[in-house]
Design a protein that fits this description.
Elements (H helix, E strand, L loop, with lengths): L1 H25 L1 H9 L50 H9 L8 H4 L20 H13 L2 H5 L1 H35 L8 H10 L1 H34 L14 H26 L1 H6 L1 H24 L5 E5 L2 E2 L11 E4 L2 E4 L1 H7 L11 H5 L2 E5 L53 H8 L8 H4 L7 H30 L2 H4 L12 H5 L4 H33 L18 H17 L2 H29 L13 H18 L1 H21 L8 H17 L13 E5 L11 H10 L5 E8 L2 H21 L5 E7 L2 H11 L9 E4 L12 H15 L3 E6 L15 E6 L6 H9 L9 E8 L5 H14 L5 E6 L7 H21 L2 H6 L7 H21 L4 E5 L10 H11 L6 E5 L11
Parallel strand pairs: 6-7, 6-9, 7-8, 9-10, 11-12, 11-14, 12-13, 14-15
Antiparallel strand pairs: 1-2, 1-5, 3-4, 10-15
Catalytic activity: K(+)(in) + chloride(in) = K(+)(out) + chloride(out)
Organism: Dromaius novaehollandiae
Keywords: Cell membrane, Chloride, Glycoprotein, Ion transport, Membrane, Phosphoprotein, Potassium, Potassium transport, Symport, Transmembrane, Transmembrane helix, Transport
């Protein structure tokens, strides 16, 4: 397969070179014209944003209509060359294409184009080492390595520490593989993970994860600042502390307050540096990287030296308990001074006297001996076997050395401050959350892809090498710390047992200050890098305009520096500073980074499984299973480290996702979610095609036939309102309309009509599709819509048709003939039909009926449509408080009492709450009014026919007035109307069976008159005609 791909690539390349050479020879004249013409706008190949350009390939200026432009061999295509350019022109553009930042046309529309000389853009020149490998190394190595890795090894033990490092490094390695596939799939934009995810999974996921990544980067800045302050106040200048503990147990709160004050000062200073100019941050980047490298090398040097000459850092033990060494100098109960045994400082602290009396002494102090052990036994000491296993502690628990001789006794609580205590409760899950930030930073290479000479090669190679390097360093450091340092020292987070020295510094060579100074500068540098990168990420999100309320952060200084974004970043980072605890901030940013990595893996997996034609990464060593494994590890790590932080992070991402979805991000980036939707839709349609839906699954899938006026405005928008209330946002809704004319001539008009209908659908909140058909006759267009709308099993089963108002006054019979023709079409297609009469009086979506009735007049059985429709309407807030009443008609030979009981039982089994009433119609005598209405109807019909007939036809026309069939129909309409108006004149809505049209088309006018008489005097009527199948069932 690989050889075949290589051969295919060679063939494509050869063809490309050949075409370019031929185009240069044949297009000489064209080039001269091009050089004389004004410079056209750059072609954007960035696959995102709104596609508003007139030409998909070239500026129209290049396709001038001059006779010399067209090649004689292309005369057949000359009329389309303005939108379909010659291959030579397209390839010429591709050859001259430069690696611009994706979104440059979209984001920089306000760029100066005043004709001033532009600086010649410097071509990208950074390679894999300087552009990806070293920046990733600098971002991955950070404060956790120097301040918390030794403590993690002490608590978790070497074996569990290996597992923590392995889990975190596997997560980042699998994410890097997915990221490499995405980054090598086309021209790599400058924008890092946000651009990758948004262009792969769409604006909703992109915005949600982009903001999570932004928050993670911002909290990372806070974490680095807190780490720098911890190093400064604990190990460099403890005297600089502003708050001092008032008592023995106030040390922790005083330290937190110091962290808050100094952290805020440091944050302001760093924000000012970033505001003044990023160039200063970049200039010192190499210095900060050097500090990291030198610090790590000093650890290895110290570990090697400890084999034959371990450093002297004695630990004072009372029994098996570790003492805090900064409060006394001599590790003994008594000392000899001038040949006299006197109490030591330790005795004074535990016994509160200097006379060697034991009256007030701590019981544990009296029963146990004081001893000194080596804090750094060295790699040859065999301490590794003691440090293999975990030793988790609860908050406030004393650090004890296992198997060290001691007598168990209860000591005094007020002496606890003399021991080294655990400041937080530890567990495997807690340590995972604290350690994970030390493996983040893998996006550093992709973030600067615009500066890389060959981004598609450098990003995968550089990032994977950086992860391999850092993983080896972490694994080796875990092993070295476990093999060289005493367990109680490893568990001593702040180095109290070794005289307030940084624990990792005690192992380093030549001096602990190498690590202290190096880690301080590296954490300061990492904080500056975070405060530099986070505002730019927020600016990129704001400029994409997918989250409207962030638009202000898309602006900045004249040179593009994100001033407002920097201000917001500083404020959010201040929240992290106010937390003031490195161990509390680390899990927060772990959540946000894990969310980001999870969606990078998801993006790669989705694209791979969908096999979209555009998914052709140059990086071949990926697989959807690896991406899913990476995604699973990310999700597992989120809940392992902190389940409540994980839920909060997911809630934030979900809220942002729904907000962007609600706002309707009008972006088309060719994302994978759209492809996933297409695949899911295809699968669902194929499943629906397997057979007709069961009665239990039947629901009205609407085809709403709208009429447009001469200005292409919707004539009766309340039809859409009614459709939205009936569907309550569920199921299929297709809005159809017909424009009369020729398709070739009225295509633009059809497009405008479709846009008008879509706008009206948005206003009325109708979720569905729009289809406008151009036909020579409106009746034909409606027939086409009824036949062809929908796809496969997802077709309409119900037609909503407007009433032809003013049909009596109109001399043109086409309106009501179209209406009756549509009724016949729906009947022939076995579709249900809904005709809302007086639809202008129907309620809007903003109205509420707090009382009233929905009356159903069940004359003939239609499959249950009359029962189902009121139930669906009552799901909407407009009709929710209305009561449902069902009326049925009893004839002479019907038992009305039994009918009422049977109907009540039937409704009970249908689980529909409604009042039941049986109306008796015994009087079968035809009234004079009925004869009068029938006569008027037939005279009008006769007159209209006579107007349309020729003289010969008029002579042959034989009119039989007082046709008995018409009289009977009119009698039914009049009697039913009397009963309905009497019982339902104040109902909010009346639903009744719609009689079918006559089989003989000569009686169409009479049919319309029957419907008018039937609904006369009713404000809101819904005529319902079933589709010939049961739509409601009593079975579960």
């Amino acid at each position: 397969m690989l050889k075949r791909n290589i051969q295919l690539n060679k063939q494509v390349y050869s063809i490309w070179v050949f075409v370019v050479c031929v185009s240069r020879l044949l297009g000489f004249l064209e080039i001269l014209i091009f050089l004389r013409s004004p410079k056209p706008a750059s072609v954007s190949f960035a696959g995102h944003g709104n596609h508003k350009e007139n030409s998909p390939f070239l500026n129209n200026l290049e396709a001038g209509k001059g006779g010399d432009y067209y090649d004689k061999n292309l005369a057949l295509f000359e009329e389309e060359l303005d939108i379909r350019p010659k291959v030579s022109s397209l390839l010429g553009k591709l050859v001259n294409y430069t690696n611009l930042t994706q979104g440059v046309k979209e984001h920089e529309e306000a760029e100066n184009t005043d004709g001033s000389k532009k600086k010649v853009s410097k071509s990208p020149s950074m390679g894999t080492l300087m552009g990806v490998y070293l920046p990733c190394m600098q971002n991955i190595f950070g404060v956790i390595l120097f301040l918390r890795l030794t403590w993690m090894v002490g608590m978790a033990g070497v074996l569990q520490s290996f597992l923590i490092v392995l889990l975190c490094c596997c997560c980042t390695m699998l994410t890097t593989i997915s990221m490499s596939a995405i980054a090598t799939n086309g021209v790599v934009p400058a924008g890092g993970s946000y651009f990758m995810i948004s262009r792969s999974l769409g604006p909703e996921f992109g915005g949600a994860v982009g903001l999570c990544f932004y928050l993670g980067t911002t909290f990372a800045g806070a974490m680095y600042i807190l780490g720098a302050i911890e190093i400064l106040l604990t190990y460099i200048v403890p005297q600089a502390a502003i708050f001092h503990p008032s008592g023995a147990h106030d040390a922790s709160s005083a330290m937190l307050n110091n962290m808050r004050v100094y952290g805020t000062v440091f944050l302001l200073l760093m924000a000012v540096v970033v505001f003044v100019g990023v160039k200063y941050v970049n200039k010192f980047a190499s210095l900060f990287l050097a500090c990291v490298v030198i610090s790590i090398l000093s650890i290895y040097a110290g570990a090697i030296k400890s084999i034959f000459d371990p450093p002297e850092f004695p630990i004072c033990m009372l029994g098996n308990r570790t003492l805090s060494r900064d409060q006394f100098d001599v590790c003994a109960k008594t000392i000899v001074k001038d040949n006299i045994t006197v109490a030591s400082k330790l005795w004074e602290l535990f016994c509160h006297n200097t006379s060697l009396t034991t009256d007030n002494c701590d019981e544990y102090f009296l029963l146990n001996n004081v001893s000194e052990i080596a804090g750094i036994p060295g790699a040859a000491s065999g301490i590794l076997k003691d440090n293999l296993w975990s030793n988790y502690l609860e908050k406030g628990e004393i650090l004890e050395k296992a198997h060290h001789p001691s007598v168990d006794a209860a000591g005094q609580k007020n002496n606890l401050h003399l021991y080294v205590l655990s400041d937080i409760a530890t567990s495997f899950m807690v340590l995972v959350g604290i350690f994970f930030p030390s493996v983040t930073g893998i996006m550093a290479g992709s973030n600067r892809s615009g500066d890389l000479k060959d981004a598609q090669k450098s990003i995968p190679v550089g990032t994977i090498l950086a992860i391999v390097t850092t993983s080896l360093v972490y694994f080796s450091c875990v092993l070295l710390f476990g093999a060289c340092i005493e367990g109680v020292v490893l568990r001593d987070k702040y180095g109290d047992a070794v005289n307030k020295n940084l624990v990792v510094g005690t192992l380093s060579w030549p001096s602990p200050w190498v690590i202290v100074i190096g880690s301080f500068f590296s954490t300061c540098g990492a904080g500056l890098q975070s405060l530099t990168g986070a505002p730019r990420l927020l600016q990129a999100i704001a400029k994409d305009n997918i989250i409207p309320f962030l638009w202000v952060f898309g602006h900045g200084k004249a040179n593009g520096e994100p001033t407002w974004a920097l201000l917001l970043t500083a404020l959010i980072a201040e929240l992290g500073i106010l937390i003031a605890s490195l161990d509390m901030v680390a899990p927060i940013l772990s959540m946000f980074f894990l969310m980001c990595y999870l969606f990078v893996n998801l993006a790669c997996a989705v694209q791979t499984l969908l096999r979209t034609p555009n998914w052709r990464p140059r990086f071949k060593y990926y697989h959807w299973a690896l991406s899913f494994l990476g995604m699973s590890i990310c999700l597992a790590l989120m809940f392992i480290s902190s389940w409540y932080y994980a839920l909060v992070a997911m809630l934030i991402a979900g809220m942002i996702y729904k907000y962007i979805e609600y706002q309707g991000a009008e972006k088309e980036w060719g994302d994978g979610i759209r492809g996933l939707s297409l695949s899911a839709a295809r699968y669902a349609l194929l499943r629906l095609e397997e057979g007709p839906p069961h009665t239990k699954n039947w629901r009205p899938q609407l085809l709403v036939l709208l009429k447009l006026d001469e200005d292409l405005h919707v004539k009766y928008p309340r039809l859409l309102t009614f459709a939205s209330q009936l569907k309550a946002g569920k199921g299929l809704t297709i809005i159809g309309s017909v424009i009369q004319g020729n398709f070739l001539e009225t295509y633009g008009e059809a497009q405008a009509a479709e846009q008008t209908i879509k706008n009206m659908m948005d206003i009325e909140k109708v979720k569905g599709f729009c289809q406008v058909v151009v036909a020579n006759k409106v009746r034909e267009g409606i027939a086409h819509l009824i036949q062809s709308c929908g796809l496969g099993g997802m077709k309409h089963n119900t037609v909503v048709l407007g009433w032809p108002y003013g049909w009596r006054q109109s001399e043109d019979p086409r309106s009501w003939k179209t209406f009756i023709g549509t009724v016949r079409c729906t009947t022939a297609a076995h579709l249900a039909l809904l005709v809302p009469k007086n639809v202008s009086f129907y309620p809007s979506n903003h109205e509420r009926y707090n009382e009233g009735n929905i009356d159903v007049w069940w004359i003939v059985h239609d499959g249950g449509m009359l029962m189902l429709l009121p139930f669906l309407l009552k799901q909407h807030k407009v009709w929710r408080k209305c009561k449902m009443r069902i009326f049925t008609v009893a004839q002479m030979d019907d038992n009305s009492i039994q009918m009422k009981k049977d109907l009540a039982t039937f409704l009970y089994q249908l689980r529909i709450e409604a009042e039941v009433e049986v109306v008796e119609m015994h009087n079968s005598d035809i009234s004079a009014y009925t004869y009068e209405r029938t006569l008027m109807m037939e005279q009008r019909s006769q007159m209209l026919r006579q107007m349309r007939l020729t003289k010969t036809e008029r002579e042959r026309e034989v009119c039989h007035l007082q046709n008995q069939s018409n009289v009977r129909r009119m009698h039914t309409a009049v009697k039913l109307n009397e009963v309905i108006v009497n019982r339902s004149h104040d109902a909010r809505l009346v639903l009744l069976n719609m009689p079918g049209p006559p089989k003989n088309t000569d009686g169409d006018e009479n049919y319309m008159e029957f419907l008018e008489v039937l609904t006369e005097g009713l404000e809101r009527v819904l005529l319902v005609r079933g589709g010939g199948r049961e739509v409601i069932t009593i079975y579960s």
